[in-house]
Amino acid sequence: MSKVAILEDDIAIAGMYQFKLQQSGYEVAVAHNGKEGLELVISFRPDLILLDLMMPHMTGEQVLQEVRKAPWGANIKVIVLTNITRDEAPVGLHDLNVDQYIIKAQYTPAQVADIVDSVLGTTDRAK
Q1: Distance between CA atoms of 83 and 66, rounded to whole angstroms?
Q2: How many C-beta neighbours within 10 Å does residue 37 have?
Q3: Which position among 4, 90, 100, 123 has the lowest Cβ density within 10 Å, counted as fewest Cβ atoms?
Q4: pTM value?
């Protein structure tokens, strides 16, 4: 079973994604701020991170910078899931090996689950 970490400060939004991804067969863990998110990623070692950019204590970019420093974190798949447009995104983000950049308001949780499938190459999950 693939593991997904959701780093999202909005509890309701995180819950929607968590529910849909668990329903789709993923093991899911959630953190609601950047500091907790980094600790979660270190302990949980997910296959993929759904990463909000604007979070308290550490931004998503700061979390990803720390994850990418570790040998085990270099190849974790990352989907940035934010309401910040690409033009407004931090300049250094493109150097941090992001697999997908999604504007939250434009995708349903089911569509996000399909994108997670695509990024992880998962085709046999429950629909």
Answers
A1: 22
A2: 30
A3: 123
A4: 0.90
Note the pLDDT tens digit of each residue in 65-81. Answer: 999 999 999 899 999 98
Question: If phi over 0 gives left and psi between -120 and 50 gives alpha, with beta otherwise, what is residue 49?
Answer: beta
Tokens of 112: 């996000």
Confidence at residue 91, expressed as pLDDT on a 0 to 100 scale: 59
Cβ neighbours of residue 14 closer than 8 Å, sequence gap 6 or more: 6, 8, 30, 32
Domains of the chain: 3-53+66-106 (3.40.50.2300)
Are 40 and 29 in contact by the 8 Å Cβ rule? The answer is yes
Q: Of 43, 69, 56, nearest to 8 (Cα)?
A: 56
Tokens read off for 90: 């931090």
Round to whole Å and give the CA distance between 98 and 119.
11
Dihedral pair phi/psi, residue 101, rounded to 5°? -125, 115
What tokens does 54 get? Answer: 């604007």
Q: Contact at 8 Å (CB) between 2 and 27?
A: yes
- The CA distance from 51 to 108, in Å, is 16
